[in-house]
Amino acid sequence: MLNVTYERAVAAMEQGLLRYLPADKAHHFAEIFAGNSCDGVHSHGMNRYPRYLSDMESGLCDANVTEAERVSGLGGMEVWDAHFGVGPLIAEQAALRAVELARTHGIACVALRNNSHWLRAGRYGLMMADAGMAGICFTNTCMNLTAYGAKQPSVGNNPITLALPRRKGSLVMDMAVSQYAYGKLEIMAQKGEMLDSPIGYNERGELTCDPGEICKSGLMLPMAKWKGSALSIMLDLLASALSLGRTALVIGKPSDGEKGMSQVFICINYAAVVDADAVDAQVEQTIDYLHSLSPTEGAGVHAPGENLAAIREKHLREGIPVTEATWEKIVAAGEGVSSGI
Amino acid sequence: MLNVTYERAVAAMEQGLLRYLPADKAHHFAEIFAGNSCDGVHSHGMNRYPRYLSDMESGLCDANVTEAERVSGLGGMEVWDAHFGVGPLIAEQAALRAVELARTHGIACVALRNNSHWLRAGRYGLMMADAGMAGICFTNTCMNLTAYGAKQPSVGNNPITLALPRRKGSLVMDMAVSQYAYGKLEIMAQKGEMLDSPIGYNERGELTCDPGEICKSGLMLPMAKWKGSALSIMLDLLASALSLGRTALVIGKPSDGEKGMSQVFICINYAAVVDADAVDAQVEQTIDYLHSLSPTEGAGVHAPGENLAAIREKHLREGIPVTEATWEKIVAAGEGVSSGI
Questions:
Q1: B91 touches chain A (CB under 8 A)
Q2: ipTM higher than 0.95?
Q3: Dist. CA A191–CA A202, nearest whole Å
Q4: Per residue in B171-192, pLDDT tens?
Q5: What is the DSSP string of B19-57?
């Protein structure tokens, strides 16, 4: 494992992105990858960079499109079309547009269709929190989980984020509707660990606690059985309904590539209608209470995202941990690209 | 088990409610109890009627208050105060106010503080769906679950509903963030059934698969471990923030009674910005696909709420199933009350 400074990570990824994007867009996209890793969300930061480059190379993501087009709107509700462009750049625009609309309308929703992978859900909730507003954002995905009651990949893990501003560091929940990411199961399998309950099927269609077998089959169940399955179906249908965008069924199987997701950005300007200082005080009261609970394990109970600022600071100070293999890919992708493009 | 017609159920409950409410309010509140049972949600229908009467008797719910007061607003975002009034009557007003606001503003949010128990979350989502709009509603509750990482009742089960109109019968997910209701665990315990994973603690603070022990201790974990716990914390903090209402911590333990919840009603008028017929067609496409999956059990895969219309029709035709004990309480509560009050 290497520790790479944030600045060095941005510079290296920017270099490879210059193959596909103009300088300002390449720089900011590199900041997004590095920033997500810096916040500790490695799965949707630098680790994902090589795959995103290959998606732009293959055309799964159209690097020529870096802005969405407004389709329609009424008051605080707008529909935009990303035309299969660069996911995180366009998702940020959608989040900021929702913030802008919520200033006037109190609450706003930008429903975005045909966007590429937005990387990390929490990023967009945090952008709203940075503007002093609450955020509810969700996306659909390809069908990477088996619906409860079936053995085929048939529903998405559809990440959802809930965010709330907080003076001492905003709170953010960023959650896919599977108990684990496949990447996490792979790591458990490498360590020889077993799951404590059967959350997927093996290739013979039998329920199993073996994470390696679930990775091989690609047949993981949603979290919480029928509840996660229902949540997944509704998030998919809501996201595709509000944007008139693609459903998980149309996006297809993981092997189809993951093209043209439906994404929803709801932003709530509660500070315009209630005393935000009083809200902050009662949030602290709950967090103090959670900290006071006798923990069953060492770490104790925390509010979602509460430790994010500390993780970010640590990585800015000590560098972002990245595997040698990923770093080699990042450096190789930038070789031979003139930064004066 | 008895089968009671919808009309008879309404008439019987109306009688008892006349002790506390004027005739029109008593009648409609009786319709809400009977309607929820008629939709198959027995836990938040007639079964809950005796307890609601005693909450009005004790003053936990103030039967003199049947309308909320508007506190503040900006565009589609409004804050209302229920002043500890009659929960479901006021929650319906909030849902309808959100629908009204969404007609003009595209999206609307009514944040309601100090409301009594709203009974069934899905009711309010369905009201929005009946108006052709999508709904996202959630409430906080008392601290009836243990946060992940602790052994004390410390977070709520905070039900959330997601609803989407559909020509063949609207879709609605109505989900608390526990895998089971305590009532369901009681039924499992009576049947001698065990859970397939340890989702709570016994009175000695040990994880257990015995539903009876979890009922005794009141120490159930949220669904999906840290994920349900995070979802619960965020729903509580969001609901109390948007309304500047009480947090789960202030509402307290189940033994404190469950007084003055914070509730959120988000309504999205997507039909104003996209072609609702095209949405309906792609929703059907997904539902057809879910039905086509090879089921692991007999029932197969369904979209949330898909069978609701059939359940309602069956109960309207054949009567609503209710235990003798509950029916006796309902009848007894109405005795000696003049319907000409």
A1: no
A2: yes
A3: 19
A4: 999 999 999 999 899 999 999 9
A5: TTS-HHHHHHHHHHHHHHHHTT-GGGTGGGHHHHHHHHH
Q: What is the DSSP secondary-structure string of A290-311? A: HHHSPBSSTT----TTTTHHHH
d(CA A4, CA A42): 13
| Contact A227/B at CB under 8 A | yes
Residue to test with chain B: of A274, A284, A287, A293, most B Cβ within 10 A: A274
**C-beta contacts of B45-49 below 8 A and 24+ residues apart:** B45/B119, B45/B120, B45/B320, B46/B9, B46/B13, B46/B320, B46/B322, B46/B326, B46/B330, B47/B322, B47/B323, B47/B326, B48/B117, B48/B119, B49/B13, B49/B16, B49/B326, B49/B329, B49/B330, B49/B333
Using 50, 70 and 90 to split pLDDT, how confident is the model at A341? Answer: very low
Q: Is A299 on the interface with B (CB under 8 A)?
A: yes
- Written as one letter, the residue type at A8 is R
Tell which A residues from 95 to 154 touch B, by Cβ distance under 8 Å: 104-109, 111, 134, 136, 147-152, 154
Question: Chain A partners of B238 at a C-beta cutoff of 8 Å?
Answer: 134, 162, 164
Average pLDDT for B256-268 = 97
pTM: 0.98
| Cβ partners under 8 Å of residue B55, min gap 6 | B61, B116, B117, B257
- Separation in Å, CA of A306 to nearest CA in chain B: 11
- The position carrying tokens 């996006």 is A251
